[in-house]
Design a protein that fits this description.
It is a single chain. This protein is of the alpha+beta class. It has two domains: 41 residues, no CATH class; 54 residues. Helix content is 42%, strand content 21%. The protein contains four helices and three strands. It has a three-stranded antiparallel sheet with strand order 1-3-2. It is rod-shaped.
Length: 105
């Protein structure tokens, strides 16, 4: 039992020197994990890509509230169940409102 507990103790606390074969095996295992792990293991299946919708003022009106802008952007993006991340105004060089930029996830 002393032999197995000694090996387990060395593995848990990693008492092997850097120039040993055990260290080389560990490095090879790490490289195998890095290069051969499928991408699907790390992808979030619930994640939907970000989509940006740019709408002109004529589509929603100049004095439209955020709810109207969000609803119209979801319709245009084809994501009625989407979540609006950000709404920002698009203005020309004189500062006149020309549209809205809506990010939907």
């Amino acid at each position: 039992m002393g032999f197995l507990s000694n090996i387990a103790n060395k593995i848990v606390f990693w008492n092997y020197p850097r120039t040993s074969w055990q260290w080389d095996v560990l490095c090879v295992l790490i490289l195998i994990f890095i290069f051969l792990t499928p991408k699907s293991w790390f992808q979030n299946t619930e994640f939907r890509p970000l989509r940006t919708v740019i709408m002109s003022v004529e589509m929603v009106g100049e004095k439209a509230d955020r709810g109207v802008i969000e609803r119209r952007a979801k319709e245009l993006a084809g994501r009625p169940d989407g979540r609006v991340i950000a709404v920002s105004d698009r203005r020309d060089t004189q500062g006149k409102l020309i549209g809205y930029e809506v990010d939907i996830r």
